[in-house]
Amino acid sequence: MLGPVLLAAARSDSIRRIVAAAPLTRPVVDRFIAGERLDESMAAVRSLAARGLEVTLDHLGEDITDPAEALRNRDAYLQLAAALKEHGLGVKAEMSVKLSAFGQALPGGHELALQNVRPVVEAAAEAGTTVTLDMEDHTTVDSTLAILADLREQFPQTGAVLQSYLFRTEDDCRALAGEGSRVRLVKGAYKEPASVAFQEKREVDKAYVRCLKILMAGEGYPMIGSHDPRMVAIGQELAHRNGRKPADYEFQMLYGIREAEQQRLVADGHRMRVYIPYGTDWYGYFMRRLAERPANLGFFLRSLATRG
C-alpha cells in the first residue's frame, strides 16, 4: 500500500535529502508553503491582505514524540502571535494549531496539549486575533472537542474544525452551531476506517452539504473549507437562504490553490481566508498529506501545472 510507504519515507532522512534535491520539489514547496521562517510567513500575510484576503497560519510540526518538541511548537506559536501583534496583522490573520504538535498523542497527552495550547490562545487574544483547533484523525476528536470547550470558557472565539466524512459529524455540528461558535467544515483528508467514516466521495459530499445546512441555520460562524466549486456555490446559496450577511460566514482555501477563485470570491464581496503553512518541517507535512490520501499527489501536481 502506498500510504505506509509514504509514512516511512516521511521518517527517512536519506529520502528527505533526495526529495529536497529533486528539481520539482522546490517549486512545489514554494507554491504551497509560505516559507521556513517567520518573516517569510509575515510577508505572505501582508501580500494576501493587500489583495483583500484574510489568512490562518499553521506552523508546521505534528505527530511529535518528545515533550520538548511540544514546547518548541508552543514557543513558535507564541513568536507568531507576537509578530502579528507587532505588525498589527491580528485583524487579518488568525492561527491554526494541531494539538498533536502540542503533545496530544504523548502519555498524558490531553492535559499536556491543553497546558501547552492555552498560552498560545491567550497570546492570540492579546494580538487581537484567535486560534482554530485543527482536527486530525478520528481517535483525537473527543479530546480536541473537550479542549475546545475548556478554552471557550475564557476565549469563546476559539474555533474548531469538523470533517464531514466522519459519521459523527452531523451531531457535532448541532452541538457547535450555537451563538459565538466558529466552525471550519472540511471534507477530511485522513485515511479512516469504514467503521467511522464514509468511504465514497459522493457520500462524503452529501454529508458535507447536510453538515453545512446545520451550521448555516445555526447561530454560529461557519467557515466553508473547500476548493470544490459545487460546495462553494452551495455555501453561497445556503448563506442567502438563511439571511446571512458577508460578515456572518467565510470561505477558506489552501495557500497556492485556486488563487483566481479566491480573488473572485473577494471581488464578489465574500470573506475569503487562506490557510498558510510555514516552517522547516515542510517535508514531513507534505509526505504526511500524501500518506493520508495518496490521491493528493495527483492533486498537487495538477495544481502545480495549472496554477490558479
Strand-helix topology:
Layout: H1 2-10, H2 13-21, H3 25-32, H4 38-50, E1 54-59, H5 67-86, E2 93-98, H6 109-126, E3 131-134, H7 141-152, E4 159-163, H8 169-175, E5 182-186, H9 201-217, E6 221-225, H10 229-241, E7 250-254, H11 259-267, E8 272-278, H12 282-292, H13 296-305
Parallel strand pairs: 1-2, 1-8, 2-3, 3-4, 4-5, 5-6, 6-7, 7-8
Give a quick summary of the entry.
Helices cover 51% and strands 14% of the residues.
What is the count of structural domains?
Answer: 1
Can you count the helices?
A: 13
The level 1 CATH classification is Alpha Beta
Shape type: globular
Q: Any idea what the CATH architecture is?
A: Alpha-Beta Barrel
Widest sheet: strand order?
Answer: 1-2-3-4-5-6-7-8
Quaternary state of the chains: single chain
Features:
TIM Barrel; 8-stranded parallel beta barrel; alpha/beta
Descriptive notes:
Its cofactor is FAD. With 308 residues, the protein is of the alpha/beta class. It has one domain (33-277): TIM Barrel. 51% of the residues lie in helices and 14% in strands. α5 (67-86) runs parallel beside α6 (109-126). The protein is globular, with a radius of gyration of 18 Å. The model has no long low-confidence stretch (mean pLDDT 89).
